[in-house]
Design a protein that fits this description.
It is built from 18 helices and 22 strands. With 507 residues, it is of the alpha/beta class.
Amino acid sequence: METKTDFLEMLHISKTFPGVTALEDVSFFCRKGEIHALIGENGAGKSTLMNILGGNQTPDSGIVRIAGVSVTFNSPRDAAAAGISFVHQEANLLTNLTVYENVFLSREITSRGIALNKAMMRRRIYEINKRFGYTLDPDQKVGALSSAERQVVEVIRALMDNPEIIILDEPTAALSEAQAQHLFEILTMLKENKACIIYISHRLDEIKQIADRITILKDGKNIGSFDAKTVSKEQMISKMVGRTLDHIYPDRSDVSPGDIVLKVENLKLEQGGNPVHLHLCAGEIVGIGGLNDQGQREILHAIFGVEKFLDGKIWVMGNQMPSGNIQEHIRGGLGFLPDDRRGAGLVLHQSVRENSSLASLDKICSFFGLILRKKELETVVNLAKLIQVKTPSLETRVGALSGGNQQKVMLMRWLMVEPNVLIIDEPTKGVDVGARMSIYQTLHQLTKNGVAILLLTSDMMELIGLSDRIYVFCEKKITAEYSRGNATEENIMIAASGFSYGNDSYG
């Protein structure tokens, strides 16, 4: 039992879903003026525990107390009335509404209880912008915002009513390093104002930086709470996954690059833009580095055929690809995993089986266009075993899976296609360390089979740990190219700032 200084007490919480025990006798405590990190693998019970606190679910047993008073929440509105705000990983916003309309949704400010006081709501947005250093336009449609800006809207909405308890679920997943540091400054300010902050993240470095205490869940049980300053990353990983992880990234010494399978020459996306040149060889993992929004993602989209390019040429397996034609690029041997798996990568209401087969219907259909169910099922079953997808059934709705398993389903889709080149945007966004290891091993095995991988990641250690070569972007052009042995965090950041110190070969 924790001390009497605990403001939030969740005592002996249990929750069972059909066939799954999500939480088993879990107790959790958080103090005022504390940032308390909650960590564990996907499926460990973190989301269920916080959904109970946030009023999205009710426990089968257990007690929740705030300031010593027992509370029961039957809805998120009940939790909000008790001073609890929840910043979700996936921005839960209405894209057709403005920033201020989203922030004040269901809690609109009115004049005399009748007419909407739009001027007051806009003013409140400007006030919180000033308080926390944001620059959001209250009248901007959310659908026109970047993923990072949408996350900021979620944060503003959560902080608008000065909540006493703030839950943040992977809040930096869509943020740049600078934006993440800005958020940490805000959390420190809220901590000093005696807020009770619960922070969920798979990024152990940022947890070490921001948290006071850490509680670890595994298989629905509380493994223990630890002082963030004294517990090591290695200890956290070991307690989360039940084993030590001596080598997170695969040893690439057994993979030798083959012939060039992707060649990009003089690629321009806009008038006056800088031409981009790059290539991939069979069996290579080539990383794309640099600060956010430097044109990297647009180049990947052009290579896959999502965006049209103004000038230049793209060859895959020696064949020139047309501009802006996804189907032709897929037929040419390209596959693509987008960073927004829920919004752009998966059909959430469809099953694991259906999502896996979406890109390869031509391979599992008869001459008359009918899906050969036996062939489809055999293929999906074998792939699910190969990359260790955790799902109750292949008919389970993919939206019900954890982030790591959703990512694996997208990988399954392209394994069925058997591409020559696989483009992956943020391969482990919102994925726990155990699932990361599994994904890394899958990518490694693909390259051993001759697949070339073009990788964009904002995780510097992941970029360096996985890549055989790295291209660094700055201001929509490549400023440096590094081989595995010369790719350091310092060199990459220098090149990302517009310098070319330590550049291997890029001119």
